[in-house]
Amino acid sequence: MAIHYGADTVYLGGKAFSLRQYSSNFDTPELKAAIGLAHRHGVKVYVACNIFPRNSQLSEIKDFLVYLEQIGPDGVIVADPGILDLARTSAPGLPLHLSTQTNTTNLAAARFWRNNGVRRINVARELNLEEIRTLARETGLEIEVFVHGAMCIAYSGRCLLSNFMAGRDSNQGRCCYPCRWKYAVVEETRPGQYQPIREDSGGTYIFHSKDLCMLEYLPDLIGADVHSPKIEGRM
């Protein structure tokens, strides 16, 4: 469907090691077939291998990277430095792309990743246009920017709630800890009926922000030398 509707690149994942484990995804023969189909239509394929693995997964990840090198995707998307190092040593023919999960926000970090074999960086989503333009023009890297899709609130301390609610950047040491405040929710057809947010036997339920929509800013991103606007949609 992505090829049919005009994508010039498709990103996808195998049955393991990407951040969309509940998507149907591709087993190893299907990965090979998908890459072949895309290449016959002049479309590139990037394979996500962007989990943050535990020790027990490293051997399987190495085998997966070696297999990817054999079937020839146009890039592998990684986030963890250990996976990046495994790819460089075990599958040196794989072009390396850095996931937005790595939170690249500055020139020094971008140059570090470039010096460690990365060709393309999907930049952190909190960057403004001028910061994106600077990375594109001063690093020699290909720059990719999400223009549609989910905006995660937090990963392992990288949280945006404080930024949104109080204008205090938690990633700059100014967090006001809104995660510790007390909340209640109101369903839109029941105004005034406040339901507490709490953990129960079924789990804890945390809200997601509205999806990113950058349609009106696409000309600005193109003008900032962004190589690839990326559309999320695997789930």
Question: How would you sum up this structure in a few lines?
Answer:
With 235 residues, the protein is α/β, with parallel strands linked by helices.
What do these coordinates show?
Strands 1, 2, 3, 4, 5, 6, 11 and 12 form an eight-stranded mixed beta sheet that branches. The protein has a two-stranded antiparallel ribbon with strand order 7-8. It has a two-stranded antiparallel ribbon with strand order 9-10. It has two domains: 9-151 and 210-231, Aldolase class I (TIM Barrel, Alpha-Beta Barrel); 152-209, no CATH class. The chain is 29% helix and 19% strand. The protein has seven helices and twelve strands. Helix 2 packs across helix 3 (81-90). The longest helix has 14 residues, at 58-71. It has helices spanning 28-40, 58-71, 81-90, 107-115, 129-138, 161-166, 218-223, and strands at 9-13, 44-48, 75-78, 96-98, 118-122, 142-149, 154-155, 158-159, 184-185, 195-196, 212-213, 228-231.
Strand content: 15-25%
Number of helices: 7
CATH fold type of the largest domain? TIM Barrel
Percent of residues in helices comes to 25-40%
Give the overall form.
globular
CATH secondary-structure class of the largest domain: Alpha Beta
Outline the secondary-structure elements.
Layout: E1 9-13, H1 28-40, E2 44-48, H2 58-71, E3 75-78, H3 81-90, E4 96-98, H4 107-115, E5 118-122, H5 129-138, E6 142-149, E7 154-155, E8 158-159, H6 161-166, E9 184-185, E10 195-196, E11 212-213, H7 218-223, E12 228-231
Parallel strand pairs: 1-2, 2-3, 3-4, 4-5, 5-6, 6-12
Antiparallel strand pairs: 6-11, 7-8, 9-10
Helix pairs in contact: 2-3
